[in-house]
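Me: Here is a favour to ask of a fellow structure person. Could you put it straight underneath, so I can go through it closely?

Assistant:
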Amino acid sequence: MHARSIVVYDRFLNNLSHLLDKAEKHCEVKGIKPEAMLTFRLFPDMFPFVKQVQLSCDFAARAAARLAGEEPKSFPDTEISFAELQDRIKAARGYIAGFDPAAYAGADQRKIALKIRGKDVSMTGENYLNLYSLPQFYFHIATAYNILRHNGVELGKGDYMGG
């Protein structure tokens, strides 16, 4: 479970950091105010770019803790710049790296209890990872990617997938 969660989250958070680098450079080259990119959303009822990054970090951090049998750490949503978002990604990566792989023994059958849209939900670690956390994580990273592409940042699938 460690390799299927922490290794994946770390890789894609690193890729997300790379996307932010490219977005910041794009803003500099094109003379775009960073706030315009950071607050852009694909549709009015969707979260803006900054929230997509925050949620990507949150889903990784929460899963790391829950699968290890611990309460997740909370990260305040205060970022308003590319640099602050990079710090958020670094903090999330550092947090998930701090979990001992041995803590994930039996995590596939560990009961995970959480609230989803105000309702108490319980599932096995296997279902939590595969049917909830990873899909949410990928959704928010893909949405961040799509916001950047929509705004002209030159990205390709390789940027999303990483090396």
Summary: The domain at 2-161 is CATH 1.20.120.450 (Four Helix Bundle (Hemerythrin (Met), subunit A)). The first strand starts at residue 111 and ends at 116.
